[in-house]
DNA sequence: GAGGTTTGGTCTAATTTGGACTAAGTTAGT
DNA sequence: ACTAACTTAGTCCAAATTAGACCAAACCTC
């Protein structure tokens, strides 16, 4: 019954290390800040984890309530210690799940109509993501950073989203050329091989240039 | 008790549409091909889903076994219909989870040692991912595409991984400049604002250039 | 013929999600 | 002053998913 503390709980603890938050604020921040990009979590979990932190003595819960219930959490010294230990530990590569790409992968590549539609849909999705990121930034610019997101780190994390959007759009542009000139049925294997060789070359160059360890 | 068919099951169905596979082959492919990048799933689920497909009549299971047990699945006409309907449906933006970045986000930005170590770790992770992708490509090049991964789509999906690695490394290079010249405590807010404005400008340009719908 | 590796899986607890549900305060219109 | 609609601030639970330990047969090597 030894409750263990998971990634979600640690990240909430990380926010509590900066100041006390009500659960609602924590949830709103996790959903609306760049954290939603780095660690998307459902509401129900976000509401559960602070309770666990309190049970474990890593945070202190105080029901501050004129009228409506509203629980405010603050970090304890034990919490700070646990957070510090966790932050010192190793990270982990990013994992992604990309349903549209999966569907593209599984559609018959000779069905150029379906492929074209999927590509258009993916472009829309990427642009929507970009627009959302932009809206987030504009919210921060209008209200002043300090309001929700004081750390310089947040602005750096946001830059990753920008680089990602750019990469994604560049890739989509590349794919458009597929539609413009799809390989014939018997040349498909060679065509794919050409792309693999191109990818391999680029990867080798990247590894060489950046990995002088 | 109406079993529903999930994304994992659909993607396995998509593979079965190409040819019959044994469960083991399906698992190996999901783990070692670019699908592991698009839809990472655990072994236990990958072993469970084909059974469900069989129960629902979307696939047909045949125990082909000289000696050892080995179940081979093939798609049924109902399976093909279900797959087609699913593929025609909408996709979904990519979701990611990036533990290292989360930790970077939560570390105190004035602790340049910790930040530096985290950045170095992230670079290692990205390079490892790139090396793995390269190894995958080389496996395909050596054995011939046809063996496991016949679709041209696979080579295009792989290109996304390349674009992603490139973007990630460019971002890391940008972050290095943080270490070289960290903002002073009282200039931190302005410094972050500068980055936000830069991001906003780039996002607006991207949206304008690519989103002429 | 002993030991290690690969093949081909099963099983379980714990985690996580998705989504329905509540209930109180707040705002806008009549 | 009354009420409808919306936002805030959550709870609850079944179902999906993961992590990872476990198992056993077949193969390879010495």
Automatic annotation (TrEMBL), chains A, B:
Q: Tell me where on the tree of life, at the top rank, the source sits.
A: Bacteria
Q: Which residues form a coiled coil?
A: 123-150
Ranges that cross the membrane: none
- What InterPro entries has UniProt attached to this entry? WH-like_DNA-bd_sf, WH_DNA-bd_sf
Q: Which UniProt keywords apply?
A: Coiled coil
- The molecule here is called PadR family transcriptional regulator
């Amino acid at each position: 019954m030894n409750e263990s503390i998971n990634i979600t709980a640690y990240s909430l603890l990380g926010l509590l290390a900066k100041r006390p938050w009500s659960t609602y604020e924590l949830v709103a921040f996790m959903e609306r800040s760049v954290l939603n990009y780095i660690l998307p979590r459902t509401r129900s979990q976000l509401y559960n984890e602070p309770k666990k932190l309190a049970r474990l003595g890593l945070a202190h819960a105080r029901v501050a309530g004129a009228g409506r219930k509203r629980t405010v959490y603050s970090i304890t010294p034990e919490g700070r210690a646990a957070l510090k230990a966790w932050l010192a530990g190793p990270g982990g590569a990013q994992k992604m799940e990309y349903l549209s790409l999966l569907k593209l992968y599984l559609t018959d590549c000779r069905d150029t109509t379906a492929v074209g539609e999927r590509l258009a849909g993916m472009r829309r999705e990427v642009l929507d993501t970009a627009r959302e990121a932009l809206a987030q930034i504009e919210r921060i610019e209008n209200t002043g950073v300090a309001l929700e997101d004081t750390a310089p780190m947040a602005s750096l994390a946001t830059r990753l989203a920008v680089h990602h959007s750019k990469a994604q759009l560049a890739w989509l542009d590349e794919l458009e050329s597929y539609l413009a000139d799809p390989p014939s049925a018997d040349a498909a294997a060679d065509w794919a091989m050409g792309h693999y060789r191109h990818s391999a070359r680029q990867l080798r160059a990247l590894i060489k240039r950046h990995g002088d360890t």
